Amino acid sequence: MRRLLKLQTWTLRGTTAADASFVLLAATVIVPVLLFIGASWLAYGETQRQFEQRLARTLDLLYVGARATFETQQLVVSNALGLIDDFNDSEIRQHEARLHEQLQYLVRKLPQVEDVFILDKEGRPLVAANVFPMPANVSAADRPYFIAHRDGRELHYVSETFRSRIKGSDIFQYSEPRQRADGSFDGVVLVAIPPTYFNKLFEQAAGTDNYTTSLLRADGELLARYPASPGTNTRLDRESSFMQAIAAHPEAGSYSTSRGSFDGVARTVAYRKLPDLPIYVAVGVASDSVREAWMHRMATHLLFGLPATLALFALALLASRRAASQAETLDRLREEQIRRATVEESLRQSQKMTAVGQLTAGIAHDFNNLLTGIGGAIEMVGRRVPQPAPDVVRFLELARTGVSRAATLTQRMLAFARQQPLQIEAVDANRLVSGMSELLRRTLGETVQIETVLSGGLWRATADPAQLEAAILNLAINARDAMPGGGTLTIETANAHLDDAYAAANAEVTPGQFVMIAVSDTGTGMDQQTIARAFEPFFTTKERGQGTGLGLSMTYGYVKQIGGHLKIYSELGHGSTVKIYLPRAHAEAATAPELAPMVGVAAGAGPVVLVVEDDPVVREFAVAACRECGCTVHQAGDGEQALRLLEKQGDIQLLFTDVGLPGGMNGRQLAAAAQARRPDLKVLYTTGYTANAIVHHGVIDAGVNFLGKPFSVSALAAKIKGMGF
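Structure (tokenized):
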């Protein structure tokens, strides 16, 4: 009986062990398969999101490029109309040679322009940029764009792609009507655009064959595409996915199609409409490419996961025979799980730090403002202690070291990738700005007055001319958008020397000689929060669809890449100034003249000065700097307080005032009121804007004494001495 019970117990235990072994072996296969299926589902979603993000970024880049291209065409048309503004058709024919040369000069550096034609009201060409003389037997009267302008249906027209009757090349055209003084039709001005220009632009943006990029009209006509369409059909049906999508969402959107209209490939497509034109930029990614990327990703996991699964199965089989090895197998499994979790956590942390990196620019900006005040205070302490004790010297040096280390930290925070290819050469900034004046005048419109102030004896700058022109154009367009009711745009050039003190207060600035180009406007201005984020990629204060937020960040990256510097000065309601500092182009830097140190000047050796500044920190520094120059100083926080001091203190010789003051009285108004009471009083202005911008804003008159912010004690001393004190 006991042997029977023992046998039954052994059999039960054997059966349980066999079942457990079977379950364990099954689990070693099923669990990894389930994990792989779950990981595959998550990986597919992540891969799809990555493709959608790249699709959106590519669309943003192409939208900026296409918009800039058509803005250039509009500018070329405006320039062409300006050339023939006072001529009738017979006079245009009479001056065809001269007009041809002017048009040719206008477009010779524009690869996006094939030619410019001016037609009379009968459709006959009068003059062109790249054709001379004009053939007499050519007419465009039957072209759709000419008929649309002649009948008054279209003011801006983008044609379909066709073969030119004059040059025999494939083009499409942007055109506008010529109008007489009474508004009647007088002909057409058109710009011929080579589709190959957009093909090259699209090819650079697409990168791989998985992406397609297209330029289409609102009626479905295909103007340019990469890769080129294999068929001859260039227009989409009204029932196509694209036409249905823009009918539902005319400004921007996305859609998926199971069969492409041109090549039959299933794609996800994102599109956006250009402003004021019936033109769309579209970017598509093949659905198969998402699956291929996902499969490649999962194949990589299989490469490592399948051997691990087989090893786990073998260990489980061994564990079913020997209980002692089961614990070891479980430990290995736990270690593998921990390793995978660690790798996944590292990946998530990397993605998190990438996102946080976009926020560091604003933090670094505020941190640099604090460093400026701290560094200035340390400098003034050093000046006020002629022979400091060793302990004082040591503590001052520790403070300077701390400021230097903090500045280095901010430089690291602001160091993001700069990889654009450049063609560096010595550039004459005066010539470049002069050459852009007419272009800017036509781009910005009649409500914006453009003034250029070019410095004599300007150094040559190290720069890429094309990128520099694009940077100035970006800044000018931003300035125009900041002046919705019109205003004044001032472009100024000057030689500049950034000293050690300025370099210590501004991250990533190397002291030395620079060529400065300042773009100033009389617009709405920016607050400190906006200035702090102005250079962040994709940050914009414009409405959705009106800007990508790439202009300033691209300008910033370009200037930093060539070793330059970019600085914004702005006050709400007083406009903005953006200063570009380009490195001076020379084999050996010239020695910059140094001002004599002002420490040790006897008190009272300088004039009696009234300092007027609303910012307490800046006012305290200005008062201390004047005293370092030997001046007797009085101070005020606004215009009313300054006038009361002038009445009480009859010995004041110099008014040193900020231009922007609170209380309804600015610096110029204060100076006018003060000089009405005291005609012999001299005035020295200071502000964060360039001097010429303030002059043309109408704040102060030309020829006044001006000292720009930031300023040093030596610069203030030189200015006071230059005023005859």
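The chain has a mean pLDDT of 77. The longest strand covers residues 487-498.
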